[in-house]
Amino acid sequence: MSNEPMHLPEEPAQERELRLVALRREAESRGKVKVRGIRPEGAPFPKASPETGYYGIPLLKPPQWTHQIPLYFFVGGAAGAAAVVSAIGHYVGADRKLVRDARYIAAAGAVISPALLIADLGKPQRFLGMMRVFKPQSPMSIGAWTLLGFGSAVSAATFAGLMRERYGPSFPMAVVENAAEAAAIPLGLGLATYTGVLIGATAIPVWNQNVGDLPLHFAASGLSAAVGMLELMGHSKNRALQTLGLGAALFEVWEGIRIEGRTHTHLDPLKHGTSGAITRVGGALSGPIPTALRLASMFAGRERGSSLRRWAGASAVAGSLLTRIAWLRAGIASAQDWRQPLEVQPYPHDKVEPTDKSRARQQTPASS
Amino acid sequence: MSTTAFLTDSTLCIGCKACEVACKEWNHVEEDGFEWSGYSYDNTGAVGASTWRHVKFVEEPPTPGIGGNAGEQASWVFSSDVCKHCEVAGCLEACPTGAIVRTEFGGVFVQPDVCNGCAYCVVACPFGVVAKNKEDGRAFKCTFCYDRQKIGLEPACAKACPTESIKFGEINQLRAEAQERLQVLQERGMNDVAFYDPAHTSVQGTHAMFILRGDPRTYNLPPNPEVPTIYLKKGWASAAVAAGLLLGGTLLAFLTDGTRDGR
């Protein structure tokens, strides 16, 4: 012990005193205090064991992407699909206005996508790092190069199209337009599908367990968004778009059945919590609602049908955006579940009491 | 050239965290934020962008023979965790810029001047090691003290370890040493000792091996870590089918559409 007198603060720190008062009030009113590190008596104390992992601390790191990334998945997916629609329409001689509007969606996407990615990276020059190497085993590298090529092809096609509209047909511009559209097909297909591989080839269970499904799901989502946008731009009487929109919506219905109809633990983030709610709302807006509206529009009159299709289109656009957000949120929830990577069975009390139906399903060999 | 490795022996670890401090000082790693976890003396929880070495505190009810404590106190097992420097590394495969490289010593190194902060390595790591520094934006993890190894020194954590719980050396020699050590421990009656080096999965072994007591899951070590590149084949096959359907469907939709103007 030192002989110096104990040093007392001259006046009690006001802030800390108020904090003590607040804690006391909280304890009085709720019977417990919610602060990290403080647990009410009798609560299960976290343990480190083979059954409980390391105090239940998640092994995996959650995706550290900003909200721009699901937005990019949405914009890139719609732009990729719109470029395919525009190119095919251009070659088969579809409505010129439709081809032009689809091209505008693709071009807008080609401008917005890198902007969103740069916002995520923080500094514009960091995007140039993606152009340092081409790495076939990295879906991120393939995606960056696809986006770069896509932007070039789509802007060339848009430029040539504008020139044709303004100055009339000319041979050099026709060559540019046809070549650019030819390049836009594979690049657009790549842009609309690669994001599924990107998140599928990761350590996150909900993503990698669905890797065989995600590219198909994202392609359908991108197509339904592109079709929806075109319908909202005034092409709600085009029959080809109706066929495409209906096809994509039916695929999304099937996707919903695939998620809801199976009881794998790795699908839990798509059914429970906030990510589950967003998945369900996004799924309903992408699948059943547009399907029903499109079917109804077939039997309605010309004007009424067109209005129904615009509603279906709006629903599909919103559904596509929510679906992308849902998958990212599900990835975060999945990474925070420490049980899956440690191969620990879920606690019985965490699970909803299984119904007879799901119990019967569990007994049959699960299909994956 | 022979490659190097860590062998972290948890039966020798005393939980002093000298490795954490040495790592932070040598590599100028920022602080982790002063927060109490509330359930053990481990207040950092896991390795991350600002924690490259991390001592795990496994607290158990008083068990004779574990932790060497008096009977009434909690028994402790400590284990110093670190980047595993996988033989086939998910982060390295995923990195789109080529910032993550394999060094001549066998370690996996993130070149800070090349990393662009895309954070794809974060979700590609099956051990949850590499993380993004929120302020800086780039990804960080254990460098395997590449700078020190370059001039013939052992990594800072191994040098600072007072009980030689962290061993550093040539990888095959350490593997042999680990087997010898396991035998010695088993002869002493420790029947729950285990060697953790996931060579049976797509990771194909690591450059940071562990001697543990009991199940690796207690220490947040996955029994079967997999490199995410194993999912690529299925993913691209699905993408090809999706592309085919999208292309074919669009073509079909336009060709069956009666309203074409036909130019």
Structure, described:
Helices cover 68% and strands 1% of the residues of chain A. Chain A is mainly alpha-helical and 368 residues long. Chain A has one domain (68-339): Formate dehydrogenase/DMSO reductase domain (Formate dehydrogenase/DMSO reductase fold), CATH 1.20.1630.10. In chain A, strands 1-2 form a two-stranded antiparallel sheet. The longest helix of chain A is centred in the C-terminal third of the chain and has 35 residues, at 302-336. Chain B folds into 2 domains: 4-226, Alpha-Beta Plaits (2-Layer Sandwich), CATH 3.30.70.20; 229-263. Helix content of chain B is 27%, strand content 18%. In chain B, strand 6 and strand 7 form a beta hairpin. The mean pLDDT of chain B is 91. Chains A and B meet through strand 1, strand 2, helix 2, helix 3 and helix 4 of A and strand 2, helix 2, helix 3, strand 6 and helix 7 of B.
Outline:
With 368 residues, chain A is an all-alpha fold.
What topology does this entry show?
The complex is a heterodimer of chains A (368) and B (263).
Chain A: H1 14-30, E1 48-49, E2 53-54, H2 68-92, H3 96-121, H4 124-128, H5 139-167, H6 171-200, H7 205-208, H8 214-232, H9 239-260, H10 273-286, H11 288-299, H12 302-336, H13 339-342, H14 356-363
Antiparallel strand pairs in A: 1-2
Chain B: E1 4-9, H1 18-27, E2 53-60, E3 75-82, H2 90-94, E4 100-102, E5 108-110, H3 120-124, E6 131-132, E7 139-140, H4 146-150, H5 156-160, E8 166-170, H6 171-187, E9 193-196, E10 208-213, H7 232-255
Parallel strand pairs in B: 1-10
Antiparallel strand pairs in B: 1-8, 2-3, 4-5, 6-7, 9-10
